[in-house]
Amino acid sequence: MPSASIAKSAPTTERRAAIAAGQPEPLSLRGWLRLGVRFGLMLALLLLCLPLHYLYRVLFYGSPFPQLFLGGVARIVGARVERVGTPLKRDVFFVANHVSWIDILAMAGASGTAFVAKAVAGWLANDLLLRELSKKRSSSEKSPSSWWSARM
After folding, report:
1. What is the pLDDT of residues 90-102, one digit of tens each?
2. DSSP string, the chain
């Protein structure tokens, strides 16, 4: 007579094999409830942050509400973000690869960064690199007047 643990694991193994084969697993009542609560929390956070963001933008520049919203949504979907080190406030260019859409929420919520598409990032990186190279070249070359005064 098989034990109870073997009898329970057989349907679980079959279910996992079906999911691995690409068959969707139906959500239980608990799963639907959890999904509804999470979407409700996201909607409530949006309805709270959006008017505050527009009101803040009328009065000041640089609203903190997008960062709060993205960090809150990351927390709602299950991301637990830990910041390590001193945050840099300005003149920072992050180059980061991400695995899923949750990474974008977590990074933007933790640092307040904005994201651009890969094509735009490539163009921007090339432009910034060329500007820095031209600055270094122009600062290392002496101006013609200083060159002539040194020769005379």
Report:
1. 777 777 777 777 8
2. ---HHHHHHHHHHHHHHHHHTTPPPPP-HHHHHHHHHHHHHHHHHHHHHHHHHHHHHHHSSS-SHHHHHHHHHHHHTT------SPPP-SS-------SSHHHHHHHHHHH------HHHHHHHHHHHHHHHHHHHHHHHSPPHHHHHHHH-
